[in-house]
TrEMBL record:
<keyword id="KW-0489">Methyltransferase</keyword>
<protein>
    <submittedName>
        <fullName>Methyltransferase domain-containing protein</fullName>
    </submittedName>
</protein>
<feature type="domain" description="Methyltransferase type 11">
    <location>
        <begin position="74"/>
        <end position="125"/>
    </location>
</feature>
<dbReference type="InterPro" id="IPR013216">
    <property type="entry name" value="Methyltransf_11"/>
</dbReference>
<dbReference type="InterPro" id="IPR029063">
    <property type="entry name" value="SAM-dependent_MTases_sf"/>
</dbReference>
<dbReference type="GO" id="GO:0008168">
    <property type="term" value="F:methyltransferase activity"/>
</dbReference>
<dbReference type="Pfam" id="PF08241">
    <property type="entry name" value="Methyltransf_11"/>
</dbReference>
<keyword id="KW-0808">Transferase</keyword>
<dbReference type="GO" id="GO:0032259">
    <property type="term" value="P:methylation"/>
</dbReference>
Length: 215
């Protein structure tokens, strides 16, 4: 396992610890995993489904048919469904907890992120949303420093220059990374915290456990 993979696994485990502590899901609760993906290459448990004691209570979904098909093969005990995270096919306040790990930054505009957040707040009784911190100097999807701080046009030319030098399995796409201020704007009633594994917070987490917070 590479150093980056070990770092990512440690970060995920820290998220899961906070999820269980603050959300405190029960055996009967339905968990909707928005942006669910199958297990990838790291050793040990890496996804929510690997760590959750009641996998049959998880419904995983996303907008890529092939990815959800692989997710279903990887986690046959959990449900799987294809949907658009900006238009969730569920009734208001119908899901006990919505979990979404490092998905919202892949929506290319803040307006789409607002729609995504609105749907989570409409459908979920509780939620737990994570995303990379815009102000962390390394963009962890591409393992490159500072690229996300440049204007979009500059990022495009850097992408062309770098070409195929991204880590295996990583493809360049548009990212809309969030600061803590913007994440709080999307989820004003949530607690928003910074999670740190290194010297500076790499991850932002917004969670709502039924209690309003000014943090």
């Amino acid at each position: 396992m590479s150093i980056i993979s070990k770092f990512q696994l440690k970060s995920r485990n820290r998220k899961f610890e906070l999820f269980f502590k603050e959300i405190n899901p029960g055996a009967e609760d339905i968990i909707l995993n928005v942006g669910a993906i199958p297990r990838v290459s790291w050793s040990g448990p890496e996804q929510l489904e690997d760590n959750y004691p009641w996998p049959t209570q998880i419904l995983g979904g996303g907008n890529e048919v092939e990815g959800i098909f692989e997710y279903r093969k990887c986690y046959p005990e959990s449900g799987a469904i294809v949907f658009d995270g900006c238009y969730l096919p569920f009734k208001d306040n119908s899901i006990d907890t919505i979990f979404s790990n490092a998905v919202i930054e892949h929506l290319e505009t803040f307006e789409n992120q607002r729609l995504f957040a609105q749907e989570i707040k409409r459908v979920g009784k509780k939620w737990f949303i994570t995303t990379p911190n815009f102000w962390f100097p390394i963009e962890l999807h591409y393992r490159l420093p500072f690229i996300h701080w440049f204007p979009k046009k500059t990022q495009f030319y850097l992408k062309k220059f770098i070409g195929g030098r991204f880590p295996r399995g990583v493809f360049f796409n548009e990212l809309c990374l969030l600061s803590r201020t913007k994440l709080k704007k999307l989820f004003p009633d949530s607690t928003v915290i910074k999670q740190r594994i290194t010297l500076y917070p790499e991850t932002l987490i917004s969670y709502y456990n039924g209690k309003l917070s000014a943090k």
